[in-house]
């Protein structure tokens, strides 16, 4: 089924999708950090399970790259080079690297699992995937179905954690709102080159839609935008 994808879009997949295996590794590390430093088994246990989820997603992306390169790791090497050097990825890579050295574990939780995932997942697995349907990439939708289902389930847990923290005090609400605004600004700028690369002139409108949907979600959690 992957062989039916247009050659031009196969190249696009290498540029936008396979490098996400490194984003997922960053999310794995952030989940480890939250599990290590967080308080309460209800939170730390869920986070350690999340480390496994994110490693599994990275492995799915790696397998897609291996299949597309007919059994070798050539495309994985190109994807790593894109993550390290391509202009379209440097904003996202910097955001991940900055989050890895953030000292406050709850800011890491909010940055990675509410803001970054809340923008990357709908952009990649909804809008980029829809664009791929015009290029014979239906097989890719099937292979990435786990990511879509997992994200919907995980988001409910993230929302419950953030909402509980916001309701605890006005001080929490102000602090978490500031963190949300900080990371939302970082990621909206970081993802602009990605959206333009994959969607062309329509990328800006799609990214604005993703940001608006995330803002609406954050508002329901009690965050002040």
Map the helices and strands.
Blueprint lengths: L6 H10 L3 H18 L3 H28 L5 H12 L1 H14 L4 H29 L4 H6 L1 H24 L1 H21 L1 H8 L3 H18 L5
Would you give the CATH topology? Ribonucleotide Reductase, subunit A
Order of helices and strands: HHHHHHHHHHH
Number of strand segments: 0
Mean pLDDT, to the nearest integer, reads 95
| Class inferred from helices and paired strands | mainly alpha
Largest sheet: none
CATH architecture: Orthogonal Bundle
* Strand content range: under 5%
Taking pLDDT < 50 over at least 5 consecutive residues as the criterion, the unreliable ranges are: none
- The CATH superfamily is Ribonucleotide Reductase, subunit A
- Helix count? 11
Cα shape: globular
**Text of the CATH class:** Mainly Alpha
* Spatial gap, N to C terminus: 44 Å
- What is the share of helical residues? over 70%
Radius of gyration, CA atoms, in whole angstroms? 17 Å
Count of structural domains:
1
Quickly list its features.
225 residues, mainly alpha, Ribonucleotide Reductase, subunit A, globular
